[in-house]
Amino acid sequence: MKTAVFPGSFDPFTKGHEELVKRAIPLFDKIIVAIGINSNKKYLFPLEQRREWIEDVFKDDPSVFVDQYEGLTAHYCQKVKAKYLLRGLRNASDFDYEKTISQLNAIVGGGLETIFLISEPQYSHFSSTIVREIIKGGGDASPFLPKEIQIK
Ligand code: ADP
User: Does the pTM exceed 0.70?
Assistant: First the structure.
């Protein structure tokens, strides 16, 4: 069973995240969208809300599961027997950051492989940070969000 973990904060899950997972579905038997919980970090949306949204986005995709974890991503992957991590690359700064994390995860995770998908051009400027800024400013973030996620 080829299992990939797609880790992130998903605060909130965007169309960019959705597109990445959809493109990865044919590549793996199972994909776990795993919400990492960092107790030092402040989130805009509660964990349960973020989780429900993602479950709703993938309700018709039987190979996609949603979970949450604390601690090291590499340890979570061992727990769920995933040999692959899925990550997205939008630009050169994503690459620099992701390269280091991927090399560390390969060591800590005993050969854990990170599979990168380059984002589609129309989504490469999408980020959870931008969505949070729009919402905090009272704007309409719907162009950046999957249709299942409606934020008033
Ligand atoms: P983190 O807190 O780990 O940065 P995010 O929720 O911001 O988590 O992102 C999780 C993953 O999704 C990262 O690999 C990131 O590069 C990727 N990602 C975020 N936005 C996009 C996008 N618009 N297109 C493709 N990948 C994306």
Answer: yes
